[in-house]
Amino acid sequence: MNILELRGITMDYGTVKALDNIHLTVKQGEWLAIMGPSGSGKTTLMNIIGCMDKPSNGAVVLDGVDLSTLPAKGLTAIRRDKIGLVFQQFHLVPYLTALENIMVAQYYHSMPDEAEALAALERVGLKERARHLPSQLSGGEQQRVCIARALINYPALILADEPTGNLDEANQNLVLGIFRELHREGHTIITVTHDPAVAERAERCIVLGHGRIADQRQNGCRTGEVACTCANG
Questions:
Q1: How far apart are CA 97 and CA 161, in angstroms?
Q2: Which of 51, 108, 147, 161 gives 20 to 30 Å between its CA and that of 188?
Q3: Residue 229 pLDDT > 60, yes or no?
Q4: Are 34 and 25 in contact (CB under 8 A)?
Q5: What's the pTM?
Q6: For the chain, which domains are there?
């Protein structure tokens, strides 16, 4: 069963075509990595899938809903109810504790539940850091709070934009280990990354070049293949 379908997605910014007739399907429970050089359209594609932008042409179907038919308010509801977002820059509220940052996400979805929020932190190994502010957490810990926040409302799709971009190797491996467990549990994950070592963890990888899908690999990307594709794309 497909959880996501992109049908002829095009995105124009004046005379610049950021995306050019993208067709893509993602199966429920799949882990997909998106790679490509700067300017290839990765962020634009992520923003469209995440309901933050509307394409110039084409349709996005998420969990059976054609997003092109929805007004702005409807897209906000889809983003809130069906998508869990993990960012490179964390975007945690600085004056709220780790626990409170997760409960804010609950508030906008339904209602806060402290026990459930604590369980989400425990899942990412941070229950004992629940009362700490973001400034009291390491980069890896902040990213794990972001993952817990993304999961708290049981999204149909997890979108991760460069989730390890600001982390050292040890924290990168820890965060990727969490994603691996989520994938094993059946979660659908799309990861945008510039790092072939991260893309290798996914079961499938597509490579963008000049707004098109230039290449794709099943069972992740091998470093040499991706480097070659990106250089030529």
A1: 23
A2: 108
A3: no
A4: no
A5: 0.87
A6: 2-232 (3.40.50.300)
